UniProtKB/TrEMBL annotation:
GO terms for molecular function: diguanylate cyclase activity. It holds the Pfam family GGDEF. Keywords: Membrane, Transmembrane, Transmembrane helix. The chain crosses the membrane at residues 32-50, 62-82, 94-114, 120-137, 144-161, 173-191. NCBIfam families: GGDEF. PROSITE patterns: GGDEF. This is Putative membrane protein.
Length: 376
């Protein structure tokens, strides 16, 4: 599985599949959004205190100018905080983070120009710190790389127009080399972390699919059914929102296998799943319960609507041309959640209705209404 996950991630450390990358980003955002904002603000404040609380505050001839620079920085943090809270996905978060990092770079150099010269090695250390903070903030690797690279370019240009900042040749080389080393180490570390997180996410999703999705038909498995129905039961008890359940079974499926072979039987199974999937609502959940038996969970659905859905599926299946000599049909049992139901009582009631449908001629829908049954 590791080799497979490597093929899904490209050299830019993002998934080749854009939809998968977006799903990963939103998963990450929903998981870490509660402390993303504090983490980023603490990081930016750390940079600000290191870069701004120096002797400029005491040696500059314009105390008001320094206060104005600080006010601009605080305003940036406030705008960043208020804006970030308005967005609900990671794509918007990226835009804000990238814009904030670029604004901070501009702000940092405006501060240097306004407040005067300072020690070259101290500035090298400040730039290295900013690069480290940028690599720690959750972001796409290429975005962090670009922000750090632009910071280095801007610093180099600033030193070029302020040659009096530079010291002797060996010190200058040491200062720039230290920045490049910080840039390389943090970039490689950010790439490694981003790659590992995506690889683990991919492996986890694939493992969940193996557990939750039937490999033959693409319908969900019992494990997923148990998880989904428990959620629906909990929601029904909390909110009173009723849901319904349809259990259906292919009539005389053993005869199909015996007459046409198991490959044809498999084709019938997958075709029926395709028919149901194409005609169910997005919220409805289809499960292969076992063999030729399926369950369709219908959230926020009362019994009458579930009956109509079952009848429609019965007709669609019986009218479909499977390319066999005999018509393929299904029998259906339909019930809805009751106040004191458990997963077991709900399933047993639906299974009893399906059994009655089989006993009464097959290719019919039987549902329960209160304490009695109605043949549709």
């Amino acid at each position: 599985m590791k080799a497979t996950s490597r093929k899904q991630i490209n050299a830019a450390c993002v998934f080749n599949n854009k939809d998968f990358e977006l799903a990963y980003e939103n998963h990450t955002y929903s998981r870490f959004k509660f402390y993303l904002i504090p983490l980023i603000i603490v990081g930016l404040i750390l940079v600000a205190f290191f870069c701004l609380l120096d002797d400029d505050l005491f040696t500059t001839n314009s105390f008001i100018t320094v206060l104005a620079v600080w006010a601009v920085f605080i305003a940036l943090l406030v705008v960043f905080f208020l804006t970030l809270g308005r967005f609900k996905n990671f794509r918007s978060y990226y835009l804000i983070i990238n814009a904030t990092e670029l604004l901070f770079i501009g702000f940092y150099f405006v501060k240097l120009i306004v407040c005067g010269n300072k020690n070259f090695l101290v500035m090298c250390l400040e730039v290295s710190l900013i690069i480290t903070i940028y690599s720690m903030i959750p972001n796409r690797w290429l975005n962090s790389l670009l922000s750090s690279f632009l910071l280095i370019i801007a610093f180099s240009v600033y030193c070029a127009i302020k040659p009096d900042l530079l010291l002797d040749r060996n010190t200058n080389i040491f200062g720039f080399a230290s920045i490049i080393v910080f840039f390389a180490i943090n970039s490689l570390n950010a790439y490694h972390k981003g790659y590992l997180k995506r690889s683990r996410y991919y492996d986890t999703i694939m493992l969940k699919r193996l557990i939750n999705v039937d490999t033959l038909t693409g319908a969900y498995t019992r494990a997923k059914f148990n998880e989904d129905i428990n959620k629906l039961i909990h929601k029904a008890r909390q909110t009173g929102r009723i849901f319904s359940l349809i259990i259906f079974d292919i009539d005389d499926f053993k005869r199909i296998n015996d007459t046409y072979g198991h490959l044809t039987g498999d084709r019938v199974l997958t075709t029926i799943v395709t028919i149901v999937t194409s005609n169910k609502r997005n919220a409805d959940i289809l499960t292969r319960w076992g063999g030729e038996e399926f369950i369709l969970l219908l959230p926020s659905t009362r019994l009458n609507e579930a009956n109509r859905i079952a009848e429609r599926l019965k007709t669609l299946i019986s009218e479909y041309d499977f390319g066999l000599d005999n018509i393929v049909t299904c029998s259906f049992g339909v019930t809805e959640f009751r106040k004191n139901d458990t997963r077991t009582t709900l399933f047993r009631r639906a299974d009893k209705l399906l059994y009655d449908a089989k006993a009464q001629g097959k290719n019919i829908v039987i549902s329960d209404v209160d304490d009695f049954q109605v043949i549709l």
